[in-house]
């Protein structure tokens, strides 16, 4: 084939693709500009309500966090975690990843953040419910529980705050589980959630795309295992410093 | 450095330039020290880990991660601090106040302040990693890291373990 012919063919092909892509995009844009699809709302509400009704559960998660360097290059950090929750006022979150090992324990009275590798921990008095504690940790200490949004009893309102568009993308399989895939848009973030189909509409995956940072980095959390009937013991929500651990302060915000 | 695990101690010895850690992510501590030197001055905006948290995100805090003692200078630290957000400045101010209180209460602390080496980083500066060659030192029941005559005290800034220059 002559190079010029090849080039023309390629150009024609890419035009076709471009037109097809534009058509699809236009259709999608049209669908999205309609606001939040009622089915998307219903599926999300069913999931957050279901989770709010669970009094005790654990979730094993796999997390990826993208960081954008000044050069524009994205670097991904991985971690795994286990969240143990007992409503209304117990939480333990453990995270192990790229050089990070951190345990977050809330016993209804105080909040402890511990880095066992470095043998440092900090402890402060905390409000009496999960929701108030998470607010307190975020606003007063700048301490964030990854995807803590989902733990709130009013998670639906928190997630939907500022959302302008929402669609049901379709069916998907996450960790071997059939899910509904939803996508939402808010001024500073796009986010997607995958919700298990059937009687237990558990969130299986959450992706947050940050739009107001260069190259739109993403945070993703995948639940590899839900346990709605966990066994907790006295130690689950009680912090006992390891030998040689030193107490340090939270810097004031 | 006894309190620092070996893996991290190794990282600390890698000569890295200044890193800026901005944001509120729990997943972005000293891990950035793994970023190769070639990428030099790394501005690393952090990804929020909460959809709702983004909208409610009010301030960005900045940690200055300085790698090697040779590269860390008072000038660069001061510059970095000027670039830090208001919240950070408030935090630094609070830290300075607490440092002042400590100095008043502990004679040893006063002496340390009086004998700070020339070119030492500013009191209250927050760093994500310690310079090389630090030794733990306990004063008035509080553990510090003595790094070439400059004392650092560990603290959590959000989810990140940091060190505050005393």
Q: Can you characterise this structure?
A:
Chain A has 253 residues and is α+β, with helices and mostly antiparallel strands. Helices cover 25% and strands 40% of the residues of chain A. Chain A has a twelve-stranded mixed β-sheet with strand order 7-8-9-10-11-1-2-3-4-5-6-12, covered by helices on one side. By secondary structure, chain B is of the alpha+beta class. Chain B has one domain. Chain B is 31% helix and 24% strand. In chain B, helix 4 crosses helix 5. Chain B is elongated, with a radius of gyration of 16 Å. The N terminus of chain B is likely disordered. Chains A and B meet through strand 1, strand 2, strand 10, strand 11 and strand 13 of A and helix 1, strand 2, helix 2, helix 4 and strand 7 of B. Strand 13 of chain A pairs parallel with strand 7 of chain B.
Defining traits:
heterodimer; A: about 250 residues; alpha+beta; outer membrane lipoprotein receptor (LolB), chain A; twelve-stranded mixed sheet; 4 helices; 13 strands; B: about 170 residues; three-stranded mixed sheet; 5 helices; 8 strands; about 30% helix
Strand order of the largest sheet of chain B: 4-8-7-6-5
Spatial extent as radius of gyration of chain B:
16 Å
Number of strands of chain A: 13
Structural class of chain A: alpha+beta
Number of domains of chain B: 1
Order of helices and strands of chain B: HEEHEHHHEEEEE
Helical run tally of chain A: 4
Q: Please, what is the CATH homologous superfamily of chain A? A: Lipoprotein localisation LolA/LolB/LppX
Unreliable runs of chain B, pLDDT <50, ≥5 residues?
1-42, 55-94, 99-112
